[in-house]
């Protein structure tokens, strides 16, 4: 078994057994948070890592789906109907975002997504009859699919783990597919891709929808986890946080956003209990990553590992005669 | 039916008229060379033909079909391929992946998000065949970043050939090559079968003149001389604006 597969197996076993070796419920909940934020980061990574489009409005799309669940439940609909409607609304909102922002790339795309995100954030604050304004919307219960109630931290964790593994598998299939290759081609050489017969805009549009779908899935898990949604979820800070997850872990990789989500969530929830200025620490870590591993933690670690193993091999071979 | 017909093509950028009523008729299988001093509008003409720029007026016909308003991405599907003056490849990938992307561009498979691209053996085999054609079969799996400039030029040509074009537009394929590399690319171009019509922009007259059957001289966006190789070279206007005395 290769070192990579062994590491993946160890990670899988550690995740599957997490409720048994973690010291308490609090840490199981932290595990759930890491997993659903990882799905969110995987969704943003479709754009940032594979399409070369940096979005600063993804928290708004996340918020739209979360509000949709809360609002539907408030109206008296069941969990299944609320989840399906939230997914549909999330994808439709992404399609609108994409149609408005994909006319531009680079800094233009960033600014349009930022502006759209701010509009939705403002609506969440001001459209009080729909969103509850500053008070937000409470979600009073969690679903119980197939008679398996998600009310306990452990069952919620395992459900999140299953959805997370499905998202990872979907991404692994996607990046190896012709469409994935086409998307990466539009990231690297859009003009050339156009000249080769690809519809660059349509490829980016479908990639946005995939990104929006993953974002909606994570938002649904989030709103059932917190059982509350407020405008703060749609804020620019939230968009920046998930972007930080992608960039710190390694954009354009599958494991990078997962590692990035782990880093940000642990600093935000665990380390913040010990260090008051945890934002400062997160900033310092990010600066260190940019200096030492500008490509992100995962690709940077792989590079360092290869460098070490190569130098060890050279050392064993001894000096040339 | 002519392979490519350009009629009264015009393009301006603000007050600057870069293409002034250009007419070209290129017959099937022809090898046409387009020459002209820097700024003559040669690459702009290619960009108008391939649809990367939209003409202000005029018409472009490909194998009898009017493609003037057709989006550039649809032209490869009708048999038009091009290479770029500045090499435009996918540096993160292997050589064979670059050519596979060219093949995928014309295949409905490009929309499929569920299958493994590496398991599409028919694509990989076609890509390797195109690379064999340009003499790069032995390094097909090498990352593009580890190739020489001359090899990259040949990858560009392989990508164009892989799409089995009817009309191939080559924008300075010898630019930046050493003498040996130039000879290699020249041999490669001469070996392309006659069912591919070729139009080439080139400054390197040693190799380009051997290639050309007919030559068009552009100057300030207009055709000033056109004819056989001998006619154009002998024309005093060619010597005046391009070849020198």
TrEMBL record, chain B:
PROSITE patterns assigned to the protein according to its UniProt record, in alphabetical order: ABC_TRANSPORTER_2 (PS50893)
GO molecular function: ATP binding; ATP hydrolysis activity
InterPro entries xrefs: AAA+_ATPase, ABC_AA/LPS_Transport, ABC_transporter-like_ATP-bd, P-loop_NTPase
Keyword Magnesium recorded: no
UniProt cross-references to SMART domains, sorted A to Z: AAA
Domain ABC transporter as annotated: residue spans: 4-245
Keyword Transport set for record: yes
Entry keyword set: ATP-binding, Nucleotide-binding, Transport
Record-linked SUPFAM superfamilies: P-loop containing nucleoside triphosphate hydrolases
GO cellular component, one term: plasma membrane
Parts forming coiled coils: none
CDD domains the UniProt entry points to: ABC_Mj1267_LivG_branched
Protein name in UniProt: ABC transporter ATP-binding protein
Species name: Pseudolabrys taiwanensis
Taxonomic lineage: Bacteria, Pseudomonadati, Pseudomonadota, Alphaproteobacteria, Hyphomicrobiales
């Amino acid at each position: 078994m290769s070192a990579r597969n062994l590491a993946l197996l160890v990670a899988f076993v550690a995740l599957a057994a997490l409720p048994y070796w973690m010291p308490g419920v609090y840490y199981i909940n932290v595990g759930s948070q890491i997993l659903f934020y990882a799905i969110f980061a995987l969704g943003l990574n479709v754009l940032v890592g594979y399409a070369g489009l940096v979005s600063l409005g993804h928290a708004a799309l996340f918020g739209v789906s979360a509000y949709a669940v809360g609002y539907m439940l408030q109206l008296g609909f069941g969990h299944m109907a609320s989840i399906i409607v939230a997914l549909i609304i999330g994808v439709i909102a992404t399609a609108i975002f994409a149609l408005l922002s994909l006319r531009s790339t680079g800094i233009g795309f960033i600014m349009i997504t930022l502006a759209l995100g701010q509009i939705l954030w403002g609506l969440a604050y001001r459209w009080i009859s729909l969103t509850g304004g500053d008070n937000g919307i409470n979600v009073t219960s969690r679903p119980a699919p197939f008679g398996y109630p998600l009310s306990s931290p452990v069952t919620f964790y395992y459900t999140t783990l299953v959805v997370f593994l499905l998202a990872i598998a979907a991404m692994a299939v996607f990046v190896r597919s012709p469409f994935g290759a086409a998307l990466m081609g539009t990231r690297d050489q859009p003009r050339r891709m156009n000249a080769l017969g690809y519809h660059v805009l349509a490829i980016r549009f479908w990639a946005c929808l995939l990104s929006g779908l993953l974002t909606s899935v994570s938002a649904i898990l989030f709103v059932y986890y917190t059982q509350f949604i407020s405008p703060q979820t749609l804020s620019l800070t939230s968009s920046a946080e998930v972007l930080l997850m992608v960039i710190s872990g390694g954009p354009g990789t599958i494991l990078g956003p997962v590692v990035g989500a782990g880093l940000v969530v642990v600093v935000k929830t665990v380390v913040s209990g010990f260090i008051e200025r945890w934002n400062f620490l997160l900033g310092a870590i990010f600066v260190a990553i940019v200096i030492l591993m500008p490509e992100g933690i995962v690709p940077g670690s792989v590079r360092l590992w290869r460098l070490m193993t190569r130098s060890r091999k050279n050392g064993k071979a001894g000096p040339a005669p | 039916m002519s392979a490519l017909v350009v009629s009264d093509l015009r393009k301006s950028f603000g007050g600057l008229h870069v293409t002034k009523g250009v007419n070209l008729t290129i017959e099937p299988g022809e090898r046409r060379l387009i020459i002209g001093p820097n700024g003559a509008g040669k690459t702009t003409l290619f960009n108008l033909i391939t649809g990367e720029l939209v003409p202000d007026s005029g018409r472009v016909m490909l194998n009898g079909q009017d493609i003037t308003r057709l989006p550039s991405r649809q032209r490869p599907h009708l048999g038009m391929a091009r290479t770029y003056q500045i090499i435009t490849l996918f540096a993160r990938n292997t050589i064979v992946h670059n050519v596979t992307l060219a093949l995928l561009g014309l295949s409905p498979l490009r929309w499929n998000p569920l299958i493994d691209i590496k398991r599409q053996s028919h694509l990989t085999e076609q890509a390797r065949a195109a690379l064999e054609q340009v003499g790069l079969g032995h390094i097909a799996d090498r990352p593009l970043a580890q190739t020489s400039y001359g090899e990259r030029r040949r990858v560009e040509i392989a990508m164009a050939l892989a799409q089995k074009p009817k009309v191939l537009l080559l924008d300075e394929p010898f630019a930046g090559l050493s003498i040996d590399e130039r000879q290699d690319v020249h041999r490669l171009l001469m070996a392309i079968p006659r069912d591919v019509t070729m139009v080439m922009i080139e400054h390197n007259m040693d190799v380009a003149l051997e290639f050309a059957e007919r030559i068009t001289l552009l100057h300030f966006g207009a055709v000033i001389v056109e004819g056989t190789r001998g006619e154009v070279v002998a024309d005093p206007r060619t010597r005046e604006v391009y070849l020198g005395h």
